[in-house]
Here is the input.
Amino acid sequence: MREQVVCKTTDLKPGDMKSSYFGKQNVLICRTLDGEFYAFLNQCTHQGAPLDKGMICGATTHTSTPGDYHYCRKGEIIRCPWHGREFDIKDDGRMLANPTKKLPSFKVRTEHDDVIIYK
Amino acid sequence: MSNSKIPLVDTDIHERVQYQEILEYLDEPFKHYIQNCHWMQEKHMPYTQPSVAGVDRADAVVPDGSPAGSDLAFMQEQLLDDIGHEFGILTSALDPSPSSMHGWHEMATALATAYNDWQIENWLEKDERLYGSVHIAAQDRDGAIKEIERVGSHPKMVQILLPIDDIMWGDPYYHPIFEAAEKHHLMIGMHHNEPPVYYGKWPRYFIEWHTLISTAHMKQVTNLIFNGVFDKFPNLGLMMIEGGYTWIPHLMWKMDQQYRDLRHEVPWLKRKPSDIFKNQIRVTTQPAEELTKKEFMSLIDQMGTDEILCFSTDYPHWDYDSPTRALPNLDPELKNKIYSENAKAFYPKLPNE
Ligand code: FES
Here is the structure.
């Protein structure tokens, strides 16, 4: 499979995500607040939870200091529905607590109102 | 997950009651206090569980919006059928948790009775894979024994549940409860509720509390062993539920070394603490520390037996362990023991052909 329409641009509001299929692979399509689309394998690298059942949210960042929370990156972080691991949508799906681990990702482009995953 | 071939005995599944469901099993005036006065059991934790959906897996909320764990049909679909459970042991959501109440023991005792009846009727008698835990209000010791006498002989009740909070259950005052357990071939299952792990208080962050839950488990094991419970009740077994498992060798070594020096104080102990542990204490795996196979095998070696660990999922909670992903890939014989045989050998009332 070289490419496939996985959903319509109107299926996802900024800050939302949904599952779809790219061939037989269950994929997660995410839309960040700036309107961009991203796609990852819809399976957590930890114990395999379905990521579309988690949430897109922001993160308390590493610029926080003890006793002082900094929360930003709204709409750019996927949190797993089970153990809560956080994956950075705009940083190739890297895990916040361990950036050497990342979600397998797919190339995405939009054409008219189609969201397309391609190789 | 659905192609898993493990004949799983899951030693920790949390069914959840909603207060309105328990009313029909409750006598007056207790029913009135819940129905009209909106009583709920006190909770103490100052934080939320900072995961996606609080204490639950975000995907375990029942499709009609009811809380995770409250619907048998959805539990069957998402857990029992999908994984292919052979047996599952229900341990409740500890809300209510009668033995955790700090007063009003009459209410606690009434709740335990109502909960047991609700559990039997709605879960144990509706799915043959599910086995249950007898709830008691242990502070009212004599009331607790009456409740054990009332439901303890139910064929699907396999253990008595005691919460890990701020009472040390090895105290001789509670020994008649263990005597009643032994009489009915029930084991003791201990699961933490809200143990104050920081010198009787709460740490600043949930992550600190959650890291140290195993210390609360270690306290209970130490307490029951040195108070002589296992020598006094040789057929009694204790299942320590949801504290992980890497603490086991540490505590065995520590207790054995202390026993060699200080046996004088606890002359009723007839065996080395580690031998008592190996014979009468079992530990559920979840939340599984992530070990490589080499690390895991070394830990088993340090325990001196591969018969202590029993797999548990903790469904439907956020720190659920997947039977196919949580532990390293083990050799078939050991896998069979941890996922099935150890629990079957432990619970006398669990079928074991
Ligand atoms: S399965 Fe995703 S964090 Fe564990």
Notes: The first helix of chain B runs from residue 19 to 22. Chain B has one domain: 8-346. Chain B touches chain A at residues 1, 50-53, 57-59, 318-322, 324-326 (CB under 8 Å).
